[in-house]
Specification:
With 276 residues, the protein is mainly alpha-helical. Helix content is 79%, strand content 0%. The protein is globular, with a radius of gyration of 20 Å. Keywords: Cell membrane, Membrane, Transmembrane, Transmembrane helix, Transport. It comes from Pseudoxanthomonas gei.
Length: 276
């Protein structure tokens, strides 16, 4: 994701977000309509509380997209990775406090160790990591709502995208009329193609995430999500040349140790359960 959005750094961040909304909505809704007609919409909206829950999740993911794209193109890739390191911890907290999921002793140890790394980074980062905390909170509560919403992953993504579709189209048309846009005119065809394909890049991971989040414990989802920010951190440091000093190395090391403890405990528990 950071590498892809960096290719679009000449496009204003909010316009990238609006294009993400438009093209991902068209892709997902068209696919559903071709395969199921409008049955998916009637079934999903007939379920209690789904309509307002998906409206809220749509707002949360749009905010998350906008902040993330802006941060990447403003040179804060390392801080975005910190946000997605904090996010799994928030998922664990939500799973335990709100969903009453239970953790083993080893899992609790891993949470405490990883939380220590997050606290270290927070107090030694050099400035208050508002980007990281905002990304963690918005995506954490997005996943929490999608876990509670009784709707299949693809229809759920389609509905939450439809809530944002018309405002995004209206905003893009207004920008074009004011000469502030550039799709199909000022920007190159390569930029236009990247914006359109951004819909695919947006839809596929969210479909996978929504599918998985309803089928495994939320606390496990949280710790698996340490993989993505690790890759983002490496991109920020090795590709974009952002700072990664001793204090950050200490904090990230604690987080990785916590992840390792959690992963080893998961393997051991799975092997014990296999004969049963």
């Amino acid at each position: 994701m950071p590498l892809y959005w960096h290719l679009l750094k000449t496009v204003p961040s909010m316009q990238i977000v609006m294009h993400r909304i438009v093209w991902s909505t068209l892709l997902v809704v068209a696919g559903l309509c071709l395969t199921q007609g409008l049955a998916w919409l009637r079934i999903a909206m007939a379920r209690p509380k789904v309509a307002w829950m998906l409206a809220l999740s749509g707002v949360l993911i749009a905010f998350n997209w906008g902040l993330y794209i802006w941060a990447v193109n403003a040179g804060h890739v390392v801080e975005t990775s910190l946000g997605y390191f904090i996010n799994p911890l928030l998922n664990v907290v939500l799973g335990v406090l709100l969903l009453r999921e239970r953790l083993s002793i080893a899992q609790w140890v891993s949470v405490v160790v990883a939380a220590g790394g997050v606290l270290w980074l927070t107090f030694n980062y050099g400035s208050f990591p508002w980007i990281a905390l905002s990304l963690a909170a918005s995506f954490g509560f997005y996943g929490f709502i999608r876990k509670l919403a009784v709707v299949d992953s693809i229809p759920g993504l389609a509905i939450e995208s439809l809530y944002l579709f018309l405002p995004a189209v209206a905003a893009l048309l207004w920008l074009e009329s004011q000469g502030a846009g550039g799709f199909g005119s000022q920007w190159s065809w390569q930029i236009d193609a990247l914006l359109v394909f951004g819909g695919v890049l947006t839809a596929v991971p969210l479909i996978g995430f929504s599918y998985a989040v309803r089928r495994v414990p939320y606390s496990v989802v949280g710790f698996m999500q340490y993989l993505a920010p690790t890759l983002q951190l490496l991109i920020g440091v090795l590709v974009f040349g952002e700072v990664f000093d001793r204090d950050r190395a200490i904090g990230f090391t604690f987080i990785w140790i916590g992840l390792l403890i959690f992963a080893v405990d998961g393997v051991v528990r799975a092997r014990r359960a296999a004969p049963l």
